[in-house]
Specification:
By secondary structure, the chain is an alpha+beta fold. It contains 5 helices and 16 strands.
Length: 377
Amino acid sequence: MRRGRIFILLALVLLLGAVAAFLLLTRLGGQPSGQEAQATPSGPVGEAQIVIAAQDIARGSEIPADGIILSPFPADFVVETMVTDVEQVIGRRARMDIARGVPITERMLTQQAGDLLGTGSEAAIAIPPGMTAIAVPMDRFSGVAYAIQDGDQVDVIISMLMVDVDPEFQTLLPDHTAILVGPNGEVLTGTGATTVETGAEGTSATSPEPLPLGRVDEEETTGQQVYLLPVGAQRPRLVSQRLITNATVLHVGDFALPEEEEEEPATEQAPAGAPAQQQQQVVVIEKPTIVTLIVAPQDALALKWALEAGGDLTLTLRAPNDDVNEATTSVTLQFLIDTYNIAVPSKLPYGTEPRLEADSLRWQPSQSSSAPAPVTE
């Protein structure tokens, strides 16, 4: 009996608690005030009428009346550049290609046929502000064996041949010599003459074949004074140095023109005498001969000068996000001898056989890089 009374009391307590909670929630969650009720939106979202393209409109073409229509558009998303009156569009020209269904904006329209806005190239989007792009030639050796790809970081090395020139004439030294003789036969310059010519401006004497300028020297053994003349033209001096640091590769090879369609790769037929399994078309891959770099404007000028001056440019590949730019030293023959401890060969009374010729020291690539040169007996 006592247990039953306890259960009844607990049930009454829970019931009273539920009723109290319901009344409290009803008071707290009552109807909102008049101002809050007015702030609550009611009804559908507002719409506006904007002009959209009813068909594809080509850049530069005149927009006809049936090329556009008015279309409903959410009022909250209408911007001030959107056109809402068809009369402002009919008869004007499109400054860019407009696809069907695209909203017309004032920037897309022009009154003059020559005032057309091009969409620009995708390559220009990849150039950071303040930088510029320039194309330089590339081959297998200067392009890191074609390992360079779009987006890589590269350095540019330049090699140049330096020569001595006459500061005034800007011609190669040594200058040729001429001997001038006065009206009475006296020598005005030089020490002698082989050919004398007399003209309105006086008498001059020159050598039949102008000799290059020489110098007076003494023989090492006899001490006899001799006049030395160079046996050939001046030999240029080679120097190499890093010209550009951390340039970004925008593209390897030529960019495709907008008019160009995707073409099938070039193929060639296997020789007629080849085995049956080789009697099929072989895909010929054209190697890139040009690379476009993103550099600073001043570096672009340096590359332009190097190309015009005939400098030899070589690209070196860097690791991604490598910002270590240590200073480099120009490399000359003297630098190699001093830095790498290269010994200058002595003049000995004996030699080796066979003798090394100049051409044998240069690497000669074969005509076809894909196959070794044929061996003949």
